[in-house]
Write a structure and sequence with these properties.
This protein has 265 residues and is an alpha/beta fold. Helices cover 46% and strands 14% of the residues. It is globular and about 50 Å long. The relative contact order is 0.14.
Length: 265
């Protein structure tokens, strides 16, 4: 592990999302020597991450940004490059998770989900890839979901975005391989994040605690528990590193065996 302790020294990473997996990924990269620039819409979460970075002595900056908006992402990439001197890694972890079918979901909700979950990946790449090319290459990691492979009920918009991320990841990997830019996705199962906590509140039922709902979610996974953001961040770090130099256009399921088991017994 000592060999990897500063493996991202001299690397610059842009991370979207400052809670859950985005937060864990930013900390993982920064603690291994990267200069990390984090974009999130939650000002309080941004402030907590910045404070943790100061306490840890990490080179990490945060910026409040709506990553679904072209102007805000463009400004964030420009500021990252000006502050840290370039861009080598992008981790796209920002997401929203509305509930509903195609009948009960209104167009505004559908469009916002697409703009955040997929549009932000397009935007960070649109502005970020030219900066990566100037550095001689780079790595992009897109956070998808086990629900990009199979679906629960009542999550039509969310599932559509996660499947789109798989397709977009492949397209980006093919288009930019010659520029030595690798692009991969990660598909977690149930992970202890604010989005999962929201699901627990939504479906837990009256008088049921979050811990009880998490235990129920975890029981659906062969490993018998939900995942932790730091476990997903380890895969993100691997895919962002030179250790994954021959890995591109792929999706990696970190789901406790969820996608390996049949629903019938």
């Amino acid at each position: 592990m000592e060999r990897l302790s500063q493996e991202f020294s001299a690397k610059v990473a842009l991370v979207t999302g400052t809670t859950g997996i985005g937060r864990a990924s930013a900390i993982r990269l920064a603690s291994a020597g990267a200069s990390v620039y984090c974009c999130g819409i939650d000002a309080a979460a941004n402030a907590r991450l910045a404070e943790d970075a100061r306490a840890g002595g990490w080179q990490l900056a945060t910026r409040r940004a709506d990553v679904s908006l072209e102007a805000e992402v463009g400004a964030a990439v420009a500021d990252c490059v000006e502050r840290f001197g370039g861009l080598d890694i992008i981790v796209n972890a920002a997401a929203v998770h509305p509930y509903g079918t195609v009948v009960t979901t209104d167009l505004a909700t559908w469009s916002h989900c697409m703009a955040v979950n997929v549009g932000s990946i397009f935007l960070t790449a649109h502005f970020g890839i030219p900066e990566m090319i100037r550095r001689g290459g780079g790595a992009i990691v897109n956070l998808s979901s086990a629900q990009g492979h199979a679906s629960q009920q009542n999550v039509a918009a969310y599932v559509a975005t996660k499947g789109a991320i798989h397709a977009l990841t492949r397209a980006m990997a093919v288009d930019h391989a010659a520029a030595r830019i690798r692009v991969n996705s990660v598909s977690p199962g149930s992970v202890r994040t604010p989005l999962l906590a929201y699901a627990a509140r939504t479906y837990g039922g009256e008088g049921v605690t979050e811990a009880e709902v998490f235990a129920r979610f975890g029981a659906a996974h062969p490993l018998g528990r939900i995942g932790e953001p730091e476990e997903v961040a380890e895969m993100v770090a691997y895919l962002a590193s030179d250790r994954a130099g021959f890995v591109t256009g792929a999706d990696f399921r970190i789901d406790g065996g969820l996608s390996a088991v049949l629903g019938v017994k």
